[in-house]
Amino acid sequence: MNGFRRNALALFGESTLFGLGMVFAGPTTVLPEFVSQLTGSPVYVGLVIALTEGAWRLPQILVARWLLPAPRKKPWLTRAGLVARPMYLLYALALWLGAGGNPALALALFLSMHAVKMLALSVDSVVWWDVFAKAIPSHRRGRVLGASTVVRGLLAVGAGALIARLLGDGDAASFQAYAAVFALAGAAFVLSLLSWTMVKETEEPTVPRLPWGQYLEQLKGILKHDRPYRTLLIVRLLAGFEGLALGFYVLIARQLLGFPAAYLGVFAAVQTVGGILAGVAFGTLSERIGNHRVIQTATGISATGPLVAVLFLLTGTTAAHPLGILYIWVFVAMGVFLNANFIGFANFAVELAPPGHRGTYIGLFSTFSGLVLIPPLLGGWVLERTSYVFLLCLTAAIAVTAHVVSWWLPQIRRRPPQTLGEPRPPT
Predict the structure, then answer these.
(1) Is 64 helix (H, G, I), strand (E, B) or coil?
(2) Domain locations in the chain?
């Protein structure tokens, strides 16, 4: 087996199995429900979501600086993975031994282990993309990412059915069932680490770790001189404002449009299918034309979600109307955009990075992306003071703006080496 094929299969396996683990430990599905069952407190539910997003995104700029001198980055993910990826297996064991009978203890253990898992992911993300860029040629990356996205989506359908069977109605006697779900998550994470060990990484010239003052100046230089990268960050932040309405589409469907509860499963299914189809399309688009087109397509589709929802409200169309089924497009658009974050945005950041500095580019990108935590918090505040129509129109307007700005992203071609923080040659 040649080096490319070996690395492609290993990275495909790692990404797919890790994604499967995240289905079983879903931060917007399984984990909030579990914590709510333990405490009944929305504060702790919010803490889990904030911890999930912030603990892995925000430290990446620090991780990137720390790893700069390392000629090989792969061992760092392996070490972090050996500590963090078995965490859910250990927590499942704690539940099986009766920790669920003491909610305070179960909560403390869960938050501690989950924090370790997500903090380690800040190392995973920086290292994974750096190694991926070295191991997979740029003209083949879309294929690998697209295939992983499709298979993850297919596995997610089966995993979702298994979760529903194990958890049932989620009553107070289901801690053993949650233990089974967490064990499945932990097993997938550990298997993903085994797949990772099969990757063969090549060394690159060592980049010295700069003092903090110089490092911050370097980051300023990137933002000042690398116009395509700066545009990418702006588009990502604007596109992140889809989160203004993200938590309210189901409420609109149930409370205002009259969709029955059974449609929650339909919405989840079409979102997954939308993601699968997007994985196929975006993988091909990335390879044949470029990641700039992936981002442009995804932001355009994302803008249609709030537009469809607001049209339903303005026209008075309900679930009983013959056209009511078209509301599912809102969830298709969500699935499409979620997959663009992986295949489009992060992949584009990797392409923009000079060799040896991919960790810095990915770390800065992820830290900036952490700001997308703000729109979901703003959405509730805006809704309390206005209306669903205003909230959806605002979301659509910002989404359209993100799409327009995305057309300033260039097609990436091979470039000669350059010094980090200097003006980028024309693309």
Answers:
(1) helix
(2) 3-196, 212-406
Per the structure block, which two tokens stand in for 235?
């588009």
pTM of the model as a whole: 0.73
When pLDDT is cut at 50, 70 and 90, the band that residue 1 belongs to is low
Could you read off the pLDDT of 359-388 as tens digits, one per residue? Answer: 788 888 888 877 777 787 788 788 888 899
Q: Which of 196, 151, 200 is nearest to 3 (CA)?
A: 200
**DSSP per residue, 172-234:** TT-HHHHHHHHHHHHHHHHHHHHHHTT--PPP----PPPPHHHHHHHHHHHHHH-HHHHHHHH
The closest alpha carbon to 232, from 134, 280, 298, 133, belongs to 298
- Distance (Å, rounded) from C-alpha 302 to C-alpha 335? 9
pLDDT at 203 over 90: no
Residue 11 confidence (pLDDT): 94
In 3-state terms the chain splits into helix, strand, coil percentages (rounded to 5) of 80, 0, 20
Pick the range with the lowest mean pLDDT from 195-199, 234-238, 368-372: 368-372
CATH assignment, 212-406: 1.20.1250.20
Distance CA 358, CA 273 (A): 32
Answer yes or no: are the C-beta atoms of 55 and 122 closer than 8 Å: yes
CATH fold match for the domains 3-196 and 212-406: yes
379/251 Cα distance (integer angstroms): 13
Torsion of CA 35, 37, 39, 45, to 10 degrees: 30
Give the Cα separation of 134 and 128 in Å (integer): 10
Q: State the alpha helices, DSSP H only, in 25-102.
A: 30-39, 42-57, 60-67, 74-84, 87-96
Pick the CATH number of 3-196 from 1.10.730.10, 3.30.70.2190, 1.20.1250.20, 3.40.50.1820: 1.20.1250.20
Under 8 Å between Cβ of 267 and 257? no
Structure tokens given for 350 = 């990797």
Position 39 scores a pLDDT of 82
* 361 alpha-carbon distance from chain centroid: 17
